[in-house]
Predict the structure of Translocase of outer mitochondrial membrane.
Amino acid sequence: MAVVVEEKSASSPLGFLTDNALSLAISDTYANLQERRKLLGLDNPGTVDGIAREVQKDVLLSNFMFSGLRCDLQKVFSINPLFRLQHGFAMGSQALPPWQLMALYGNSSVFMQAAYSSDKSLTAWGNLRWTPQFVTKTQTSIDPRQAQTMIQIDNEYTGDDFSASVKAISPSILDGGLTGIFIGSYLQSLTPRLSVGLEGVWQRAALNSKPETAVSYCARYRGTDWIASAQYLAQGSLGASYWRKLAERVEAGADCQLQFAPGMGGAGLLGGIRREGQTTLGVKYTFGTAVYRAQVDSAGKFGVVLEKRVAAPVTVTFAAEIDQWKNTHKLGLAVSLEGAPEELEEIAQRPENQSTLPPPI
């Protein structure tokens, strides 16, 4: 008769941390919570920075308005990986340099972009996708007119029903202590339509100054063809936005920003609360080869931006803004020329290149 002796494997020295009633109860509770979250069918809500992206970054003119004359010459050398060079020329603009050279490289894991201007300033972006959910984004700006170089590092994790990020702006320990700006944010979907989040900021300009902290709260609700969002800042600021798809090619949005300054109501430091605010209304029309955007705000400004592709490699953009109260205006005209060999355009149309993961921009 054969006797089988079962030998128990030696436990880990730190096994007592997991092999106890408390840790097992926490593990079971977390597993049950994960199962319930999957049954709710929650989607990723985006990020706190993009809580109102449909209005502020797509419909309104904040990212599209410019003045003066501008010409961009682009040359695409490769599609996958993406490699592009661009020369930019500007005249009559206070925001854009007279000349700028920009290079871009990107694939499914790495994105790198650098811009060198005629004023000897250099800006570089570098993003690395560690996993499909985790991305590290960096930005460095060197300007001879500024005393300090700006460095920004952003670590962003995108889960199935939440997004979390930790951002550091110009961090330093060279002065004997920690200085800089550190921002942490978290946005969670509670239902298929409602998501809430918060953002915390810790900043310290120098060691001889006290650290400052602030916490903001935000919420986002997504309807069938509309999205509403709100954000409250601890300094006394309140922002609300509303986006709606009016038709297949028409979108509209409203953005309202309110600020409350205590003790500035007109009776000295002990006065009431001064309330300041601005409301902006915008609309976006998408045609076959053109995109038209227009907005008007409570400060008396009216602006339009028309972007039209007049030919396959040529895009013309017209921008105009009128300030009724200050009796001023701005005009802008831009021409973009993009060139790529025909074989690259054929490669871009292939199904295997269209289904690849985009660069971690």
